[in-house]
Amino acid sequence: MNPAEMAQSALPVAASADVSLIALFWQAHWIVKGVMLGLLGCSVWVWAIAIDKIFLFARTRRSMDRFEQAFWSGESIEELYRTLSAKPTHSMAACFVAAMREWKRSFENQARSVAGLQMRIDKVMNVSIAREVERLERRLLVLATVGSAGPFVGLFGTVWGIMSSFQSIAASKNTSLAVVAPGIAEALFATAVGLIAAIPATIFYNKFTSEVNRQAQRLEGFADEFSAILSRQIDERG
Predict the structure, then answer these.
(1) How far apart are CA 4 and CA 8, in angstroms?
(2) What separation in angstroms does the CA of 209 have from each of 59, 94, 112, 141?
(3) Which residues of 143-169 are buried (b: 16+ CB within 10 A; e: fewer)?
(4) Mind telling me which residue stretches traverse the membrane in this protein (predicted)?
């Protein structure tokens, strides 16, 4: 058979091959299907975490803005403490309440060690900041894991799919492009799904890590300022 006749004979096969995304998924090996389903599930999880974090960081920024506005408005810190201590607080307000609670507890117990009081106040504010940072960082490890491992998981599905394609070629003893292309397309589809999961995960992880650092620095700045205010009051009482 000459090349022209071989090309003509391959046309019906190529025309009948369905290479749509849904068809590629259903025609793939079951292991490749499992890889793609797992990666799609990870992609949905990544977007759910991202949406939750976007709203969380927005709420935290608004909470910090409201607290700073109230704190620097000239209102008595005792009155502000009574207002905030009556309800659960997060972020900067939690740091303030923890410091004020330690301050009031120490003076109620007739503490006389000024250096010890200052150290305890700094300690409770640092613990409060650490808890807030831990709250903001929750589930970011999932984004880092999907972003780093997703392409390799997709590549595993690709390698397995190509192996299955070559086994089919060996069984059919036909190496025409019409026979090879669908199997390779199924395999490469797994890599594409891996990238679909990994790229947003990496972008969101970098963005949210930067946001956590920014808010942590803002908390630490407030803690330093409030510690200085309490230190002056400790000196006055001393």
Answers:
(1) 6
(2) 17, 21, 42, 10
(3) beebbebbbebbbbbbebbbebbeeee
(4) 9-28, 34-56, 140-163, 183-205
CB contact set of 214 (below 8 Å; sequence gap of 6+) = none
pLDDT per residue as tens digits for the range 140-189: 999 999 999 999 998 888 888 788 777 777 777 766 666 666 677 777 88
Copy the structure tokens of residue 160.
Answer: 């397995």
Q: The domain containing residue 186 runs over which residues?
A: 28-234
- Residue 129 within a domain: yes
- Residue 9 in any domain: the answer is no
Q: How far apart are CA 235 and CA 122, in angstroms?
A: 16
Helix (H) or strand (E) holding 156: helix 140-172
